[in-house]
Amino acid sequence: MEIIRENIVEGTIEVSVINKEYTKFFSDFFGNEEKAINLLKACYEMTDQDVRPRRIINNISRLISLGDELISIKPGRYGLAIFYWIVSIEAVSHIANQGEKERFKIKIIRDFFEEYIDETDKEFLLEHIERAASDMREEISPKISLSIIATIFYNIRHDFVHEGIYSNFHFSSSNEERVLNSLVMKEYGKDVEEERTYYVSVTYEQMRKRIINGLLNFLKNKLTASNLSKKK
């Protein structure tokens, strides 16, 4: 813990709390405390040069953990956790791009899935989230795009924020099981809102891991010297 504490200027948040909660979150995720400490150290040491990496790493831990806590209280109500996943993506994008022209939130989420989800994870999602046969309209294949997958998760967040709905999406218990999910949404901007139906064979744990990996890819991008604008 001392390796982190040495590089923090104490403010309104108690340093020991940050160390304990954030280090445990990333230690659990990596299965390696040293790797978690090194990541936190890299972000915290940059504070004088650019405070954004530190804010981003804190937000990832804080917001994903909130989703985890709600799922432990309301098992199976996955919309509660998904809400915090999407808010975390929006939050880190806002932190990284302060002072730039604000983008539509749906574009932030689509860009995140396209740019920061690993290629192998993209292939996995495209294989395990498909259009249901009953919803095949003009489409000739059950395969959907990554943009539509991003839109699905954005709409779950939207339903919770604006309608208080958080139990309209379910993950599978294994990749061999397919769960039918129906959502009222627009797949594309030109569409009207209508019921669309998808088969999902992704587990909650698998999706959570891919969201966190994407957030860490986003963070690593901001940690590179070529992408730092050295804002004070």
List keywords for this structure.
232 residues, mainly alpha, 7% strand, disordered N terminus
Kindly describe this structure.
With 232 residues, the chain is mainly alpha-helical. It is 57% helix and 7% strand. It has 9 helices and 3 strands; from the N terminus they run H-H-H-H-H-H-H-E-H-E-E-H. The protein has helices at residues 2-5, 15-30, 33-44, 52-73, 78-96, 105-116, 119-128, 146-163, 204-223, and strands spanning 129-131, 179-185, 194-200. The protein has a 3-stranded antiparallel β-sheet. Strand 2 and strand 3 (194-200) form a beta hairpin. It starts with a helix and ends in a 9-residue tail after the last helix.
Topology summary:
Elements: H1 2-5, H2 15-30, H3 33-44, H4 52-73, H5 78-96, H6 105-116, H7 119-128, E1 129-131, H8 146-163, E2 179-185, E3 194-200, H9 204-223
Antiparallel strand pairs: 1-3, 2-3
Helix share bin: 55-70%
What average pLDDT do the residues reach? 86
The assembly state of the depicted protein chains is single chain
Structural class: mainly alpha
Order of helices and strands: HHHHHHHEHEEH
Give the neighbour order of strands across the main sheet: 1-3-2
Number of helices: 9
Rg for CA atoms:
19 Å
Number of strands: 3
Question: Largest sheet, described in full?
Answer: 3 strands, antiparallel
Q: Give unreliable regions as ranges.
A: 1-17
Beta-strand percentage range: 5-15%
Amino- and carboxy-terminal Cα gap? 26 Å
Outline type:
globular
